[in-house]
Please model this.
Amino acid sequence: MTNNYPQVTNKNENQLVISHLYLVKFVVNRMTMNLPPGVTKDDLHAIGSMGLIDAAKKFDTSKGVQFKTYSVPRIRGAILDELRRYTLGGQTLCRKARQIEQATKAIEIRKDGGSASDEEVADELGITKEKLNKMMTEVSRSFLISLDEPTYSDNATTSFADTIEDQKLLTPDIFLENKERKSLIQNVIQELPNQEKKVLVLYYFEEITLREIGLVMGVSESRVSQIHTKAILRLRSRLKQLNYQ
Model:
């Protein structure tokens, strides 16, 4: 893992980092993934701390955003970026994710917005449902599918998570744009199949871990992970259909 951490040179930045170190632990604990060989939770804490330091250096108080809101996606992003570089087969897993997303999109366009079932997606890809479930399990463990994934082409730092969080922006035009995005994503989430919607709400809004969601829903953690992956791919597909990505 990389050890080229940015240095904190400003006293205010240093105070921000020290007072928000707990966010790194929070983010790492939420990222319940299978780690690649040789990677430990300590590595994730180190990389997350690097993301926190970078966020402190770039934070602009004039934007009216709370530092916690600004930094959490960047801590996650730093960890995800490093793990993508470190994980073998990352490009293959990206390709599998795109295949599932494109198949889902094609089906839902033909169904005029109706949800694509697992059976339909499997048929579209020319594989069995069991093979599709295996693909989704692999993708869900690849560190690639997350609400923290950049989503809007005009701003690479904007993600689903950025939009869902309550960013109390003071600039009227930015506030209205963010409000529109938030409303759109919430509407799309409401249109997802009930299982997928429930997982997203519990995980991102109620901040319940995948294991705990599994206990609530009476399914395994790996099954919840599959549902989460399907939900994110479907969400991304529908936003693209709305020309919002």
Q: What stands out?
A: The beta strands are 150-152, 155-159. The chain has two domains: 1-88, 90-245. Residues 2-8, 150-176 have pLDDT under 50 and may be disordered.
